[in-house]
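Hey, quick one: can you model this chain's 3D structure?
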Amino acid sequence: MNSKSSGAESAFSHWTTRRWLWAGVSVTLIVLAVLGSLGGWAMWRTSQITSELVDRRSPALIGSMRLEQALINQETGIRGYGLSGRRDFLQPYTKGTADERTALRRLRPLLSGDARARADLAEVDELAASWQARTAGPISAAPAAKAVSLATERASEGKATFDSLRRALARQQAHLESERQAAGRDLRHAVKLRNWMFTVIAVVIVLVAFAVFEGLRRGVTGPLTRLGFEAREVASGRFDLSFAGTGPADLRQLSSDVESMRRRLVEELELAEASRTLLDEQAADLKRSNTELEQFAYVASHDLQEPLRKVSSFTQLLQRRYGNQLDERADQYIAFAVDGANRMQVLINDLLAFSRVGRVHNDHRTVDLDEVLGKTLDNLSVALEESDAEITHDTLPTVVGDTTQLTMLWQNLLSNAIKFRSADRPPRIHVSAASADGIWEFAVTDNGIGIAPEFQEKVFILFQRLHTKDAYPGTGIGLAMCKKIVEFHGGTIRIDPDHQQGTRIVLTLPAVEAAEAPERRTQP
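Sure thing. Here's the predicted structure for all 524 residues.
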């Protein structure tokens, strides 16, 4: 017995939730189908008996009573005419004859399926025909003078025949009444059976619903609840808690998969802890490196520039004091030394500014780019006037960033556009702004000398120059600094390769809020 039960349990242990649901739904549908069939049969049985009682038994009894009443009216009319000899006494007889025909016409179809009732009706019809032939017909047809004497002669025969007719009607009505009562009893029994059956159906449905809910609780919701509880416990930090799978095969497999995931997470956490320790060590090294970089910046800004200033100052002093004693080549050498010292100072200052991006100036706040651009144009007012440049711009939005860095960004972009202008036309520069999908896209477009396609990526690399310092002064750090500032603010910067005349630099910054449609402004 134990081996059989364990074999059954082993067979059921491979059933998945879907298979259990299919089995449960199938059994439930079969039970409901059987119950529905029984309920339908009970309803049909009740309806049949009700129809038999209402449509046949009761109307047949009523029809028999109406036939009896029609024959009594005929007998009353004949008796009155036979006693008085007055024709107006035949009016009940005439009406009774018509009512008799009507009653028989309605009664015959109602008794078509009942042999005893048809025999009773045949007997009544035969006796009524005999009475009418021997008594009612001759008396009603006789004139008034002979009707009285004819009625007197046939009084005894007519009375005996009509009494037999009455007894036949009574037997018919008794039979019809007994059949109506039997149909009533059948109806009451059918209604009682129907009520009991529907009660049983309701109880079975409740039991099936309870079994379904209990099965779902034990087989699905219970294991899922335990699995969810254990998962929350693991999520709260109890990584040593194992998942014990229960329920159908697929839920046990799910628990096994989650247990494998827990073990993998434990392994990953151990690796993450080791990585975190390594990152802490690297962060300490990076902090120490940043400290050394700051010290280097201090040295570069003070200790390195101080000798350069002395070289430049004393070289210029040497030129002023001994200028008359030196030849033209000596003056040229002195100019080279001063220019080299000055360019070294500019290069050091640019490197310091480049290294401070994202490190020194990191005060993120809401920045109105219209105001930033206005300050930039003020700073470039001399260059604008000397080059006869005209700068137009759309209404610029408000973004989140560092004011100092964004000012450096616009100043580098606009000063480059002015510096690399075409010799045969004044600079015309336009700054546009457009918003799409939470991103502001800006474009600085000029009509200058442009950038060849093969150099459009190279210009953003540190110290990359496309021209000699004699043609266009500078250190080659400007666009590299612009790229670093834009990427620090979460954006991108590139050269538009489709723009032909001049240069168009396109950059993006994250949007903060919707701005009004750009309006064109002109700045001389």
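One thing worth noting: Strands lie at 364-368, 390-393, 398-402, 428-436, 439-446, 493-495, 503-510, 521-523.
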